[in-house]
Structure of Acetyl-CoA C-acetyltransferase:
Amino acid sequence: MAEPRRVGVIGGNRIPFARQFGPYARASNQDMLTAALDGLVARYDLAGQVLGEVVAGAVIKHSRDFNLTRETVLGTALDPRTPAYDIQQACGTGLEAAILVANKIALGQIEWGIAGGVDTASDAPLVLNEKFRQLLLTFNRAKSTSQRLALLPRLRPGFLVPEIPRNAEPRTGMSMGEHAALTAAAWEISRSDQDELAAASHQRLAAAYDRGFLDDLVTPYLGLSRDQNLRPGSTVEKLATLKPVFGDTMTAGNSTPLTDGASAVLLASEEKAAALGLPVLAYFSHCETAAVDFVHGDEGLLMAPAYAVPRMLARAGLTLQDFDFYEVHEAFASQVLATLKAWEDPAFCKEKLGLDTPLGAIDRSKLNVNGSSLAAGHPFAATGGRIVATAAKLLAERGSGRALISICAAGGLGVTAILESAAR
Ligand SMILES: CC(=O)CC(=O)SCCNC(=O)CCNC(=O)[C@H](O)C(C)(C)COP(=O)(O)OP(=O)(O)OC[C@H]1O[C@@H](n2cnc3c(N)ncnc32)[C@H](O)[C@@H]1OP(=O)(O)O
């Protein structure tokens, strides 16, 4: 096998994220992913190009979208001979898609590719009531009209009540927010610390829009040019007035909202980028996934990044402090704070991570410097692409350094990565 090659992040594109039942209420996953991909195609002049692969996914998907990414690619300006397929790793989907594309480029299997993600909280795939579904399957197998008619008396009015997808863990029946509230209580994360993080997220994202940072990362769509959830005027005082919705400390202000949106990121080998004259913003250097046993163990559902990051640091020969940017997905403010607290905690680091000294504290001024999911919103599978593009551009602007990306995901999963500056 060939020596791994360096993988460049060329750039990203996303549509502004919209609140559930907002302006994208009638847009399907395919519509939104098409918009994100076509924006990227336009930005990097990719029309008619055959890419190595497009990898994307959605957490909430209709059964008709059996290969959503391929169907979407067929409707974009990319050459239809571009292979494309879906993956799903809950909120880690977008980052995992980027890791898959990056690994194939690193191994010389492809030269360039797009990673993406999309999710709708508005266009929910309602499923037939299980009893009705079984009856319809039996009906379908019936060989004669009389057999079909004989089945009709089995139909009950209750069969018409659909099964609506819940934002809950199948194994526990608890929502993400309920799980996160347990973690917030276990780690004694205060309400005021959560509100402070949420206010900073809004203020920083608003400032990033104002200074034009997102001009080449976000393409207007269906009347939105900025993320609809963004409230530049969010203050700790205002957030402190909101009622808790999960546990005692978590509110609509320090939790991500249910969101619609899509994102895409273009990755290429150094050689391909040079041949096309495309500047590289940053290089993908390391990645790691982890999972926690939140069903039988005492772990918080969203704590897997607390394990993935130290393993990745050990392989990379880095400490937690060796970064200029920390992009930690804000599923809930409490989740970010619990993860940071775990890395500072001698007992957690010793007992769970096997480390004699804790990973330690990070410089908080480097955390989510342009805001994150609390302000932008969180269309599950699209968040990874938003974060990779943001981190790469931050490194390009700085002209040096390194960014840590950490994304917690449903199912007790965590996906993490390191980007390095492309400047020499
Ligand atoms: C999925 C994975 O794999 C991993 C993960 O990321 S886990 C995270 C997954 N995401 C989730 O679970 C989403 C969780 N969020 C939710 O379920 C819902 O958004 C929620 C229950 C928290 C809130 O829902 P809601 O009540 O409809 O919110 P919303 O109406 O917008 O806000 C409630 C109030 O707070 C106010 N508010 C919200 N944010 C505010 C802010 N930043 N500043 C001031 N006020 C704010 C609103 O104005 C509203 O006030 P009124 O009642 O006076 O109108």
Summary: The CA atoms of residues 286 and 418 lie 5 Å apart. The first strand starts at residue 7 and ends at 14.
